[in-house]
Amino acid sequence: MPLITYVEKNFSPASLALIRTADTICRDYQQGFDLTLSSWELDALEPTMLDRLIEAEIHAWRDDALWSEATRAMERERDLLEAVSRRWTDVAALVAGES
Asked: For the chain, which residues make up each domain, given as ranges?
């Protein structure tokens, strides 16, 4: 659910007193999104709700197949680095030409 939809559904501008018509950033936002009554600040949301909204938006745009492929590649590279770190003396000697 887009943030603006969530806020419009769950918050009352009067009860939260978040109308900031004197703020130029607010005015620009209102004009950009054709909003005439109010703008909303993210700090009006509980951190856990903000986290869920962000996660949902990321998942809506993310290509899960590519994400999984990149995650597997990162895990293979991390495993390799861990193996190298366990044998650092041997690796250093090999690089220095002491093998």
From this structure: 1-61, 64-99
